[in-house]
Amino acid sequence: GESVGLHLPTLSVQEGDNSIINCAYSNSASDYFIWYKQESGKGPQFIIDIRSNMDKRQGQRVTVLLNKTVKHLSLQIAATQPGDSAVYFCADLRKNSGGYQKVTFGTGTKLQVIP
Amino acid sequence: DGGITQSPKYLFRKEGQNVTLSCEQNLNHDAMYWYRQDPGQGLRLIYYSQIVNDFQKGDIAEGYSVSREKKESFPLTVTSAQKNPTAFYLCASSRLAGGRYNEQFFGPGTRLTVL
Predict the structure, then answer these.
(1) Which of A12, B11, B24, B74 is most exposed, with minimal Cβ within 10 Å?
(2) How far apart are CA A35 and CA A86, in angstroms?
């Protein structure tokens, strides 16, 4: 079936190191892929998105890579900081004919930054 | 400040009671969404609305109802028919149309516990 999932439930990273969070998807018809960050007890916050016809996009300290051949998505965080500790969700987006955005979320990876 | 508010943050109800969760946005967004999040899982779509007085079922609409009488407001009622209502409920909004992904802005969430 259609799914967006993550390889690892928990990732521990030393402060200052780079973090890589991975995600696998199954639906080839997705228009966009999105990464969200959710801190404990809060709603998710948008980090970065990438259109399906791209393979790399960079933001501030974050880079998203898309490999459509193996249906794999990753989020790279440079120089990880304690404030990066959160659960990270990948999601994919498909639009229907009415313009509605159908967003499907993965189960999330918890990033723990070790001071 | 522009944003989405949800109230209350924590809600306790007895089994068999209906309960309504509030969601208000002042972002002038057309689309609004309700998601449910269970521990260690991603978000699942309950209902969405693209325009006032119109809404559509998401993936897990059974036991829930919504209304969209005003653009700014999208309350969710958890009815007694919902078999497992204890969860974290998240409301989101976004613009519509356009060719790119329209970022969904999330509220802080309401944690509902049914006793």
Answers:
(1) A12
(2) 12
